[in-house]
Each structure stands twice: as structure tokens, then as C-alpha cells.
Protein 1
Amino acid sequence: MKPTLLILAAGMASRYGGMKQIESFGPDGETIMEYSIYDAIEAGFGKIVFIIREEFADNFKAIFEPKLQGRIETDYVYQDLRSYLDGFTLPPDRSKPWGTAHAVLCAKEAVKEPFAVINADDFYGRDAFRKAYKFLVEDCTENTYSIIGYELLKTLSDNGTVNRGVCQVDGNGNLTSIAERLNISMQDGKILCDDNAEPKELPRDSQVSMNFWCFHPSVFEYSEKLFSDFLTKHIHEQKSEFFIPIVADQFIRDGVGVIKVIPTSALWFGVTYKEDAPDVRKSVNDLVQSGEYPPALWNAKVTV
């Protein structure tokens, strides 16, 4: 069975200030996620599942169905604040989504095979999808998940600070923990964090999570239990979020299994701030000019 690609596209995009998931960045009007989908198809993935908010469903389908029909199977899952509350009552003042791990949990009924998870608004590169596919087909089990690791230096923004999940890796290439570091920027040739945590300076070659994960479907049942625990402690905190690294850290701590860190040489770029958009368009166009992608992405033959 071919693996599935799960695309997280339900976020509010608060820092960016708009629906960046469906903004055009390619020369023929392509969104960032279309390049991820193109690379996933080329790598061998068999299905795309979009996690979105229900009010955006018509927009998403109008954009993607004409382009992807006949190329790869698609499905849509809605991230709803009321999903998987396990008997808890939704607080009336809660409007913020529950976070990335809850978004993944919402796909429980749609995904029955090993799968990768990515953000809709990040460009991950072809090498990352090929390595993810290889892992999902050959090595993914109930006790072995993975994360694609990117070099910290290559993930900074010139237009403001960024937050990154910094990976700690053991001698066997397994993840031991992820520390969410905040307000990271380059200052006088050093990568520094302004978040009251130690160390202040991070090595340039630190492996960081850009939210590209590879899971066995067993993660759904495990996440469902952890989400219930999370709600017990945090349901009345308006801004509390249930993130994928929370699940990953607990998976490791509970001794359930291991999470392999798979380094990639792929170029990463993304849109955190509006000011990032011109640089992203230039990066995409540079890849098109170099022949990495066709000028009109979906007019070209795709290897399925």
C-alpha cells in the first residue's frame, strides 16, 4: 500500500495575516503546497489528505481538484474544535485550533496506512519526500517513526525571528528530545535565542524540525489518549495547543519506540512574515529556471 501525505492547512496564519496556504508563489500561480504535492507524487505517494477548516473547503477543492484529478487520490478532513474532546465540553471562549497534533488526530478515519505530515506553507524539497517515502515503505512500524531534519542555519528568516523545534539526536540517529526554541535570529554571525532558555547560542548545523514527520497509523490511538490528558490540564487555557512534538516526546519517554532523525540536503523555505513572500517567489522561480520544476507545474507529465 502506498503511503499518504497529510497536509496541515487549517492554521490561522496569524503572523502572516492572511490565507497564505492558497496564495500564489509559482510562475503559473502555484501555491507552495503544490510543489510539495508534485514532489510527493514523483516520490511515489498514493494519496493526499488535506486538513482544513470546513469554511475553506470550497476554495480548496476549486483550486486543487482540477489540477490533481487523475494524478493522485485526494481527501479532505476538517479540523473541528469539537473533535475528539472525549466527553469534555468546549469552552465558549475557545476559538483557536487545538494545534498540529490535534489536526493529525482529526485524520484518524481517513488514513489507514503509513503517512507523512507536512505544513501547507513550507517548501521542503524533493530529497525530503524521497527519503520520507523510502522510510515509510521500508522501515515504518508501530514502534519506529521518523522526522526529516533540516539544518538550522538554512531555516532562518531575514525579516524577523523564528521559532524552531531543535532536535537532540543520539549516536544511533534517534531523536531523544525536541526543545521548542523561540525568537531565533542571526546576530553578528551567531544564531541566538531570545527566550530565557539555555543555551542562548545554537550551533549552525543543529537539526531542527520543520514539521515533516513520518508516522505509522498507530500514532492516532496514542495521540487520542495524550490529547485527553492534555485537555484535563489545559482545556481552559485559551491559547493552549497540542503540538506534534508533545506526542513525539512522550512516545520516546514512554519507551514505546524510536523516532529516527533523517537528515536532508533539501532546500527549505517558508512564509512566516509577509515580507518573506518576495524571497519565496524568487526561490521558486530560481528552481524553475534551473529546470528543477516545469514553468507550468501541472501541464507537465508527472510520474505516478
Note: Residues 12-18 have pLDDT under 50 and may be disordered.
Protein 2
Amino acid sequence: MKKILVSGLLAVTGAILLPGIAGASALSGTENIQITQVNNQPGAVFAQGVFNAGGTDYKKTNRTDLFVFSDGAFTVHHVITSSPPPTFNPTTCMVTATEAGTFSLNGGVGAFKGVSGSGTFSASFMAAYPRKPNGACDLERNAQPTASVSQISASGTVSFS
């Protein structure tokens, strides 16, 4: 089963609503981030708090993502601390899963130069799988879902130095 955090669709770009963040001195506080990914495409990122922005989440590795906004970008490292077994409904061929963990961010460029922070996240994943010619759900290792969606909510402290 693929890991949830860090992939997505809905390529959304947005402007930083707090102009001049890079030049601000020791700006810090709580940041809330929502990510939505559809059908294994880059995720749409919405951030609110110390900065307000919309952007795109690009998965780099199983533990690293790159959040890209119109005025800059930063790297997010995440560790899954809880991942209960997924549930499967053989009548609908639907798989659901949840995860939770911690994240840290750094490596900012542009408006996000000097950003750092950390916090926690929770994620949910749903995928519908196709059926084989005999009517059974196709959950083979290489089977691709016919549709999938991931929702990630994260919250933590962010600061700009």
C-alpha cells in the first residue's frame, strides 16, 4: 500500500498574502496546512497562519516533499508514527487507510528563505480498485486504483529567521 503523505493532484498556485515575509525578522507562530491529492497527482496545498498561501505538493521520496508556491518553496520531511492496517470492502472494492506522524520543514527559497518549523499531521486515503474479468476485486501488486483521494491535515509552529 502506498504511503499517503506527499503526493497529489490539483496543481494550485497562489500568492503569498503576507508580502515581504523573507525580510521579516523572527516572525513565528502556528501554521495550519491542508493537502488534497486526487488520483496520484501532485497535491494542492493550502496554508494559513504565519503565512497564507496556496501551492503544490510534489513528492520527492517516501519521507520528503517539496511545497512550491508562486513566491518560493520549502522542503517538508515527514515520519509516519501510526499506520493502522487499511480496511477493504470486497463488495465495493474500496480500500481506506489512515496515518499520523510528525513533520519538519526547512530549505526555503524565495519568500520562504529562512523558514523552519515542525508539527504533526493526520492523513486519510480512499481508493477504488477495478474488478477482474471474474468479478473479483483486482488488488494485485501492480493494480492501479480507478480513483483515489488523500486528505492531509497538518499543524505546527513555523518561524522565519
Note: The beta strands are 27-38, 43-49, 53-61, 64-69, 72-82, 87-89, 94-110, 115-128, 147-160.
